[in-house]
Amino acid sequence: MRQKQAFIPTMREIPADAEAISHQLLVKGGYIRQLTAGVYSFLPLGRRVLRSIEAIVREEIDRTGAQEVLLPALQPADLWQQSGRYEVYGPELVRLQDRSGREFALGPTHEEVITQLVAGEISTYRKLPVTLYQVQTKFRDERRPRFGLLRCREFVMKDAYSFDTDWEGLDMTYHAMYDAYHRIFERCGLQFRAVEADAGSIGGEGGTHEFMAIAESGEDDVVTCSCCTYAANMEKAISLETVKLSSGDGDVSAIVREKALLEQFHTPGLRTIEELTNGLGISSAELIKTLLYLADGKPVAVLVRGDHSINETKVLNALGAITLELADSETVKRVTGAGTGFAGPVGLTVPLLVDYEVSIMPTAIAGANMTDYHSRNVVPGRDFALAQVGDFRNVQEGDTCPSCTEGKLTIIRGIEIGHVFKLGTKYSEKLGAQFINSAGESLPMIMGCYGIGVSRLLSAIIEQNHDDAGMIWPASIAPYTVHLIPVAHQDAAQMEAAERLYAELTAAGIQVLLDDREERLGVKLKDSDLIGIPLRVVIGKGIAEGMVEWKKRSSSEPAERIAISEVLASVNAHIAGS
Predict the structure, then answer these.
(1) Choices 3.40.50.800, 3.40.50.2300, 3.40.5.10, 3.20.190.10: CATH for 480-577
(2) Among 5, 118, 258, 363, which residue carries the largest CB count within 10 Å?
(3) What pLDDT shows up at residue 281?
(4) Which residues contact 99 (CB under 8 A, 6 or more apart)?
(5) DSSP string across 99-151
(6) Domain 246-390: CATH architecture, name and number where available
(7) What is the Cβ-side half-sphere exposure of residue 481, based on CA atoms within 13 angstroms?
(8) If pLDDT is split at 50, 70 and 90, which confidence band does 140 have?
(9) Whole-Å CA distances, 269 to 286, 348, 372
(10) Peptide bond into 108 cis (omega under 30)
(11) How far apart are the C-alpha atoms of 288 and 277, rounded to whole Å?
């Protein structure tokens, strides 16, 4: 491609609404443009990267034996109602009606559609297993789209669905996909971890793993061990301390309880944990934090130690609820009789979810359910019931690893780029995907689901591969491999050499962007650094001696002089090495 005719509208200023570095650079570099909040157009450079990623995804998924289909984005609402997910997805599901008043949804995922399709076409074990996948545009009505392609309302996704006759078959398919995901992300040049995860609204009966690109800008907390390979999303992570308590090693009856009587004391204006620890001169571990939630609209109280934070996913799963949100001030006042910040477990009539660590506290300070008052000498099991005790907290830095029992847990940030699920029979039973086995019995198919955020990968890769000047694309997915830049457009010798090299590289199958614009060299080099093509060849006055300047975008070393006759071999060596 000749840059003079290429549609690459670079910008000099950072867009005001772009928070993530990948968002800033993709817009500045002319890769994407926003149409409306969370909806983006892919310009030629962005589309070329997207196609390269899609090609890698297709190659590796095809290697597993999966077959590509293309399913409708427009889905009948009754399919979602049949699966039970129409309400679960809530306002994130984009809903609409046709002219006849029939309800539809724009698919954020395709479990219902693919299950109905397979149910209508396969009825015998002889046609199983089968895995089908697609690369498709998805829709999710995000409450707050942000970070460019990382949190969109319209996005490109690869989703695959497997159908097996038994759990052993699903295990084989799951591990084949798990391995394929490793190959895909390695080929995309990403640093990533596969971590244990919560199934969320996709659900299922088996294991699930998320694939996380490691990045400080990530929205997810990834918990890893300092000694072993244990890794989990914060929503799923547990500590050895919690494992011991849940197994009975921390028997509540063995805890030495405080004998002092419960008493209330005046704490004017002390609402937060920080205010209490500073005002009372105590540690946060001596406090019980009581938060009121609405679970499917009904109030519940969750208790964790003052130095811990509540894991809302664990709470939601323990309750088997569809929705969970913090109670508003009116609800808090109605349930506790006090203003926000003074809730406590003693005397509450709503269900109490008590974290293991709270259940073994000998005594504690907690809200008194009276504005400006707290209670001291609160004893779990004496002053409030321990009817529902469980793991309701987030792990912390320094907790002990539950896997190797020796390492300490550390927390890093990550960007979710893929997710694999063992669905079991969640969808096949509800949507009638049955098969007849060799004994003549009718059984539900055992399903798996496997997603990759294809468009999201652009941002994840840039979050890991950039510098102050711009993007640094890995060779495997770059929009072009070589950026060819003649210094002076009016210099006939330079332009002739550039044209010869352009033709030679192109004939060898190398993707080349030739900057034939009548611009100053500084402008050309600045644009080149911004758009991040892996290799740059500058043709200047040295061409009189048959020499050009060669530079790798990923290297901080200055450009080196090489013979123009060596460029093709050097490019091929770089491609092979990367």
Answers:
(1) 3.40.50.800
(2) 118
(3) 95
(4) none
(5) TT--EEEE-S--HHHHHHHHHHH--BGGG--EEEEEEEEEE---SS-BTGGGB
(6) Alpha-Beta Complex (3.90)
(7) 20
(8) very high
(9) 19, 22, 6
(10) no
(11) 12
CB contact set of 523 (below 8 Å; sequence gap of 6+)? none
Distance CA 227, CA 436 (A): 47
Range(s) of the chain covered by CATH 3.90.960.10: 246-390
Predicted local distance difference test score (pLDDT) of residue 164: 97
Residue 458, φ and ψ in degrees, nearest 5: -55, -45
Strand pairing category for 352-355 and 39-42: unpaired
For residues 175-186, average pLDDT: 97
At 510-523, the pLDDT tens digits run: 999 999 999 999 99
Q: What angle do CA 552, 553, 556 make, to 5 degrees?
A: 85
How far is CA 303 from its chain centroid? 28
What does the pLDDT read at residue 197? 84
**Strand pairing partners for 413?**
221
pLDDT reported for residue 368: 97
Distance CA 41, CA 526 (A): 24
Domain 47-238+411-463 CATH superfamily: Bira Bifunctional Protein; Domain 2 (3.30.930.10)
Which of 193, 131, 191 shows the shortest CA–CA distance to 164?
131
Q: Which residues pair with 479 in a beta bridge?
A: none
Residue type, 255: I
Cα separation, 264 vs 365, whole angstroms: 10
DSSP conformational letter for 400: B
The amino acid that residue 155 corresponds to is F
Question: What is the location of CATH 3.40.50.800 in the chain?
Answer: 480-577
Q: 207-219, pLDDT tens digit by residue? A: 789 999 999 888 8
Using CA atoms, how far residue 62 sits from 56, 177, 182, in Å, is: 10, 10, 14
Spatial distance between the Cα atoms of 436 and 428, rounded to a whole number of angstroms: 14
The long-range contacts involving 336-341, CB below 8 angstroms and separated by at least 24 positions, are 336/292, 336/367, 336/369, 337/369, 337/370, 338/367, 338/368, 338/369, 338/370, 338/371, 338/373, 339/371, 340/271, 341/270, 341/271, 341/272, 341/367
CATH 3.30.930.10 residue ranges for the chain: 47-238+411-463
The answer to whether residues 180 and 157 touch, using CB atoms and an 8 Å cutoff, is: no
